[in-house]
Write the structure tokens for this entry.
Amino acid sequence: MTVMTLTEEELVSAVAEPSRRRVLDLLIRNGEASAWSLADHVPFSRQAVSKHLVVLEGAGLVRRRKQRREVLYQVQPERLHQATRAMADLAAQWDRRLDAIKRLAEAAHAEAKPRATKEST
Amino acid sequence: MAELVIEREILIEAPVEVVWRTITEPDQMALWFADRVELTVEPGARGFMYFGDQGGPVVVVSVEAPTRFSFRWNHPLEEDPVVGNSMFVEFTLSAEGDERTRLRVTERDHELRDWPDTEKQRYAEDHRGGWSTHLARLATLLEGQS
């Protein structure tokens, strides 16, 4: 049975947090932005924005570059798609587990039924 | 924007007691979840799940036969699963007649792993569910720009 790789887990954790997705959303809309300008558009502090950016950068979801005295962040599209796929995989993995439970339970039930009928007659 | 909650369900043509045994007996769990499961099914019990030569600890949260079974697991980190480092999985079973069971599973707390964030609660103005839609929308937005 397969489980997620560490990188995928990191990606999923990074995008699973609502505030971080909000930061990603803003970055996508604005193209490139600094922590300062992002903080104007969210109900949390610049420090919180910076923390989210650190996590997003760690997961490879954003890249930073220095322009004069500012640090600008930009979304890495390929990583974002990878995150979307990893999250869809999680759901698919539970579907496979539920299918296996269904097969096992139905087989156990089918096996028990004739025996119960025989015992009762 | 919502937290990440994976929610799936399936209809099984078997009585609720049979489905209950399938999801809670370690030998059965090894057939649909991990390769090998060492677990006592009682609240607070700690066990271990093996995936090939890897593995991870699991802690049983609640056992209400035959309707509710939940646990925390955090494969592959070898730490005690608590809120903040692990995923919470909950099964709910409901009988639909004598020979049919609706089985629901939710897995949550992915966003709490590895990155403790005390400010998170304060800004969690959004409801659960819908994360996949949101992420898909992000990806679409991104495509529209390139």
